[in-house]
Amino acid sequence: LRCHFLHVWFGLVGAHQVVSSRTAELERLQSTIQTETKAIGEDRKALKNEKGEFEVFRSETLEQLETIRKKLEKDKKEFADARAEAKGAIEADRRDLAEKIQLFEEEGADSQRHLQRLPAQLDE
């Protein structure tokens, strides 16, 4: 009976040690889970803040790009208008120059004819 009692006693002691070991392991795992859950919560909060900051940055950047696009469109239109105006002025200058050349050539031809008639007029 004593053997049986000792055998049961040591069996209970061994079982108690196993239970205690498993309980300690469970407590350690629960602590790890709490720590990791807290860290995940902090990471989520940080990511949410970063996402908010990114959205603000993105919005400001898109606004700046739109402003630049509008300015480029305005500058492009002004350049096209100035180019058309310059082209018109060049065409007007060409026509004016062509008219002056034609008048100069006509005056030169008239002067040439007058010079050719001059000796005949002097003989008269």
**What percentage of amino acids are in beta strands?**
under 5%
Report the radius of gyration as a whole number of Å: 52 Å
Mean pLDDT: 88
Distance between the termini: 177 Å
What is the overall number of helices? 1
Helix content, binned percent: over 70%
Structural class: mainly alpha
Question: Which spans have pLDDT < 50 for at least 5 consecutive residues?
Answer: none
| Envelope shape | rod-shaped
The major β-sheet equals: none
Task: Kindly describe this structure.
This protein is an all-alpha fold and 124 residues long. The protein is built from one helix and no strands. The longest helix is centred in the middle third of the chain and has 122 residues, at 2-123. The relative contact order is 0.03. The mean pLDDT is 88.
Topology of this protein?
Elements: H1 2-123
Put the structure in a nutshell:
With 124 residues, the protein is mostly helical.
List keywords for this structure.
mainly alpha, 1 helix, 124 residues, rod-shaped
